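Entry 14. Ran structure prediction on the chain below.
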Amino acid sequence: MPFFGSDEDCVQITWDSDRVIYAHKVDDYVPVFREQIRFGGDGLHRALAAGESAPAAPAEVPAPAVPAEDPPLPAPAAPPPPDPGEGSGADDEGDEDAPTKAQRLITEAQSLQHRLTHMPKNPYCDVCSRSRMLKKRTARTRYAKCDDELDPVEEFGQRIAADFIIVHKDAKSTETVVLTVRDEATGYIRAFPLVSRHEDGVVRSLLSFLGRRASGPCVLFKSDNARELLAACATLGFTSEPSLERRWPHNSVLEREIRTIEECTRALHIAAGFQLHSGLWVHTVRYAAHTINLFHPAVGIEGCRYANAIGSEFGGMKLQLGQLVYYRLDPANREKFQASAAPGVFAGWRFDSGPSSFREVYYVLDYGKLKNREPGYEKAISVPREEIHVPRGNPILPMFTAAEAALSSFTKAEYEAIEFLDVPFSTVAPSTPVAKRHEYITLDRLMRLGATPGCKACKFDGTVHTPVCKARFDGLIKAEKIAASKSVRDAAPPDVERPDPLAESAPAAPEGDEDAPERASSSAGPRAPAGVAVQSSESKVPTGEFGLSARFLANERARNNTRRVKELPGENVLIEYGCEDESEIRDACERCKVHCVSLSQSTLDLTSQDDMQQVVSQAIPGVDAWFTIPCTHMSSHQAVHRESQSPKYARKIAQRQATSKRMLVLALNVADHIIEQGGRVSFQWSSDSGVLVQPEWIDFASKHELSSVACVSGNKATTIASNSKRVLEHFAKVSTKESSEINATNIKAYELADLVIQSLFPQRYFKSVPNLGKASALITKNLSRREWQAEPKALEAIAQEAEGLRRNGTWDDTTAMPLHELRSQARMPEYAEQIVQTYCEITGTTPDKLRRVNTPCIAESSMTDEDISAQGELHDSASRILMRCLWLARLCRADIAFAVTRLASRVTRWTAWEDRQVLRLVSYIHHTRDVCMNASCSWDAAPELRVYTDADFAACPYTSRSTSGIVVHIGTGQHAFPVMWQSRKQTSVARSTPEAEMISMASAMFSEVINLQTFLQSAFKSTVPIIFFQDNETVLAILKSGYSPKLRHLGRVHRVNVASMAEIFEQEDFSATYVNSKEQLANGLTKIIPPAEWSDMLTQLCLHEGVPHSATVSKVVAEEAERFASSLPRKITQEDLVQLLSYLPGESAVRPSASEAMCFTTGCLSISLRQ
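Output, structure tokens:
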């Protein structure tokens, strides 16, 4: 029987060291022994032939007898015995020796009984081994930390591990999980509740866990084979180390931490009373993870996990989950005299990004919402430390108390009523300085002070102004306020009296004249504000016509010059601002075909700054505007009404006047924008309107030097103010009528509309032709070449003009080119240089930094992963460069067609690789801008169309689409005249090279060649045959047969009918022939040509390097050479020969035919014979 000893001296143990077996090691006080077992027999290793009987079994185990009536079955091959230590699927029977058991299993595997049922599993049976493969057995073995072959970690963020906790799962796509992330170096751990196991949520959680360490040089990420974890690891660029099930290395440390978090979360959830509400577990699991970081060190790591991660202790308040606290309630959410602190429940600490991101901000649940179960009760409120009050004494857990009471009484939980606490919170923390608000950058200030260079918000391309822009406006507005405080107005503006429209009006008083107010008050007309001249028939101002100032006339001339030189898009557009719904001006614009934009109160809110900003953004350059803003509430008779009526009516009038004034300010902003864009503005006011004395109107009129005239419209005195001289002239004619013709001067509404159109758009409408007493005219005639050559004076005048052009350097005879050669070349060197200049302006580089290259494309073998993953710097401006390059390629530079097409297909997905390609392309254009296309033809041979089509199968590295290349020449014998070339990526993926070649040929045939043949036959009045050159014999065979079973899908996928193409080639003027790939002219339009073959490709495309034109042998030079040769003696000297050779052209000179220039004949030939 077992017994207990009182001490160790009462028990003595002895053993023989030669007869005992020592344990290999001890794990958790359990001895572990190791033993090696060897089997004696090797078993049978060869298969038995059909009909051959098995050898006799050992004598110890007799083999069962096989009935004679059963036919012998073929015996399967005996597999090798299992390795030592591997178990089988069958149960072990007793302590049978290994050799004996192996022989018995081998015999059993070959028996008929086993082959009929294959039960139980036999490791020596081939069928059993394949059909009943079992999972590999794994032993529970402890491994040392160094067995994972990873370097030791030293700081936070070098190696992390992550795994999921499945909280709730309703269906395959609906689940709630918790992502647990642990740092291996410090043991720091965090839990992130997620609504689904999606890659985006995992990425955000990992970034929040690591913080600034997420951009470290290398982060090793340990996890299982979950796809969302591996995808997030790839997105963030971490090094992934996934683990296999029951295989080392694994995530056992994190799994133990997860179990600790689960147990801690359950306990804290009950202790806080959060089980009363669903959805509060998200706060509990975050709270549990952080408390583990604070109070439970990791196994094998000394110190607090939080302190190890950031290097300092946690400085926040350590409160219990569910503890009662009071937080500051915003005054907008409480009554006027209600206490400022509302009860809440502590729910944890807020960490934004990384362990060091705690900023003394805490999560609090509103107690009132929890008690009443209001919507959103589970959402925590972020409250800073300064706005939280914790009651003194023992912690109060209201939810736990309610849960315990409900459990003990078997009733529904009822919360205790907690009143608000009046805590004198300050509006801001004492240590936090008061932030100073920047000045508002309104549209009015932006138009008055100008936009800040480099700020996108000032150009309406962004929403937030730059710090430099904010500082600039702060300084400018502060300076305005200082200047406004120093300025004191001398007197209030005088009352505005209703003037007589036919009476004289005094001219504007010049600045600095102190007697101007007295003279203005004594005059019969109304007082004119500063900067506005009210004109009449007797007004005489020495500065210009109709009393217009020199500054007004200068602005008029500058605007007219701009409108004549530039084609402004708004030259035939009129904006009618503030009009009625039924406008006479709009009807007049429709009659005269002038585009009118009517902005009435029913169309836009004229008092809204947002609507006016929209008008400003849509005001195109050169547009004209006619403003008729209602100003009834600012008229002079309103002052009488305001004095005679009640104060309530006066306040109503003041509100309406404020609205009118706001409408005026916004209208002036629109007018200011129109004037800056070269437009004309005109204002129509009532003569007794108070607008004329408003400081905003006076400043605007003075700034733009507006002038005004008075007239009568609809028995009502009206003032027209404008910056257009023509408008003032037309309305001044109406105001200069005699008093006896007052009925005629009373302009009706439709007459005023016609007058507006006539003054602004005379090319569209004019009422009468002015009486011109004298007009100058110049009649010219375009003389023909024969007419002016027959006139000696004309020839003399042309010779004098030519001499003047040569003298000032305009003409340069050394670079002259004959007409026949000029017509045979297509040159665009200036346009190519414009492309280079555009690229340099966009990138900020200089042309001298563009190195010389041989080809316009970079080999795709130099493409790197970084190039195709990073966004290119030219992603928003590449189209400006490529449009110019595309125009150059289509006109005369077929050598860059493939490069431009490839780049154009990547405009919406621009990367750094395309930046390199554009630099290569522009560098090639810069150093080959003199390359020109030479065309030649002969009238001795009949013309024919030579069509070269080619395709590069799956040429695009991004989409695997093929590229089609087409070159069309008009051939006349040995001469070729290029008329069309094209490089285009196909619309869908081809399955083979013949399919891509057929698509390219069909595109050339139906889109270009047949139409070109019809045009040439109409021009030449003869048949023009078409010859297709193809370097793929399979395509020619398919066209000959008219069908291919492998290309039967072309009609459905590519809209190409093989049978219709074969029918066309059956016509007499269509043919197809084979050409070698080296002679295929379209080869350079489908792929990247190596530099060694580039010169041959240029020659095939009729492209040659442009050189200064060599001098031709003119008629005068030939005659002079003849005379010099005839005057030479019989024996000539070396000097004579050198002088004679000076008349000869160079080797590269063009020898014209006999009809164009004379050749050296007898004189030169005699010299050669003498020598």
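The two ends are 144 Å apart (CA to CA). Will compare against last week's run tomorrow.
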